[in-house]
UniProtKB/TrEMBL annotation:
This is Dihydroorotate dehydrogenase. Binds 1 FMN per subunit. Substrate binds at K43, N67, S68, V69, G70, L71, N124, N191, S192. It comes from Methanosphaera stadtmanae. The lineage of its organism: Archaea, Methanobacteriati, Methanobacteriota, Methanomada group, Methanobacteria. It is an enzyme of class 1 (oxidoreductase). Its EC number is 1.3.-.-.
């Protein structure tokens, strides 16, 4: 019912772990695979280790969280070992490496060093709280996005390239088209919204050490859905929908809007890793009860209702 084959990956269900949540160590990613995720996206990493920002880096808000982890990661050498350790799960649970950099060379270099251990790359050109030159500095600009994607595509021939987009732009379809024209095999929409701010009402101090951070969780779902819906009408490559998915009803909305695959981030903090089994169970039941034979029948359904 939920099986699909996309980008050469044979998937038992469409629900992936989103980048940055439980994706830092091989053991936590294996745990998420055992919990029933259809696939895994690692925490973003680059060539060099990055300490990120000082604590506090995450604060709960109504309907989600604000984070400024700042792309903290151990660098490609350490990450390679984690990825090798994941080889044993890859036949059942494909692994996508989320990578970042500040130039075409850095993206291609990280990808070259790790391409033997992953099923696809997700280029993070969309982090709203990355240091200048990284993250959404790239993904807000169609030319820069195009150049980075086409350079990685030139260098990495046999591993699919997915590009993760920021919603913090005037027209996300312009960036989506630039990525598709550059050869992207799929797109992930969306990275966190904002940045936003929370202030401690007792001390008047911003709560996050970095002051600002990216907003995620159920409160961003309408924005994420809009991005998927509009992009589905613009490009011909598969879309990963992410942003506030917590129940099978949220998953259905993203599939109807045009996402072929889905990712779950913040809701794991609230529901635990069982969220993968709960949503796949409820989604299968819904499809069966409504006479569908396969999840593919409902992808983009909202666009075809006349
Ligand atoms: C604590 C935290 C860390 C994150 N780290 C990354 C990251 O390393 N790379 C990335 O592309 N997105 C990162 N994200 C964004 C998520 O992958 C996702 O796009 C976003 O949170 C929206 O999905 P959600 O509402 O299900 O959390 C992070 C989000 C959170 C909350």
């Amino acid at each position: 019912m939920l099986e699909q084959e996309i980008l050469g990956m044979k998937l038992s269900n469409p629900l992936f772990l989103a980048a940055g949540i439980l994706g830092t160590t091989a053991s936590s990613m294996k745990m998420v695979a055992r919990a029933g995720a259809g696939g895994i996206v690692t925490k973003s990493f680059s060539i060099e280790a990055n300490d990120g920002y000082d604590n506090p880096t995450i604060v709960k808000i109504e309907g989600g969280v604000i984070n400024s982890v700042g792309l903290a990661s151990p660098g490609v050498e350490a990450k390679k070992e984690e990825l090798k350790d994941l080889n044993e799960i890859r036949d059942k649970t494909p692994v996508i490496a989320s990578i970042y950099g500040d130039s075409e060379e850095v993206f291609s270099d990280v990808a070259n060093q790790t391409k033997d251990y992953v099923d696809a790359f997700e280029l993070n050109v969309s982090c709203p709280h990355a240091k200048c030159g990284f993250g959404s500095n790239i993904g807000e600009n169609p030319e820069l996005t195009h150049d980075i994607v086409s350079s990685v595509k030139d260098n990495i021939k046999d591993v699919p390239i997915i590009v993760k987009l920021t919603p913090n732009v005037t027209d996300i379809t312009e960036i989506a088209k630039a990525a598709e024209d550059a050869g992207a095999d799929a797109l992930t929409l969306i990275n966190s919204v904002g940045p936003g701010l929370r202030i401690d009402y007792k001390t008047a101090r911003p709560i996050l050490n970095n002051v600002f951070g990216g907003i995620a969780g159920p409160m961003i779902k309408p924005i994420a859905l809009k991005c998927v819906y509009k992009t589905y009408e613009t490009v011909d490559i598969p879309l990963f929908g992410v942003g506030g998915i917590r129940t099978y009803k949220d998953a259905l909305e993203f599939l109807y809007a045009g996402a072929s695959l889905l990712q779950i981030g913040t809701s794991i903090m609230y529901e635990g890793p069982e969220i993968f089994k709960n949503i796949t169970h409820d989604l299968s039941n819904f499809l069966e009860e409504n006479g569908y034979k396969n999840v593919e029948e409902i992808i983009g359904l909202s666009h075809n209702l006349g």
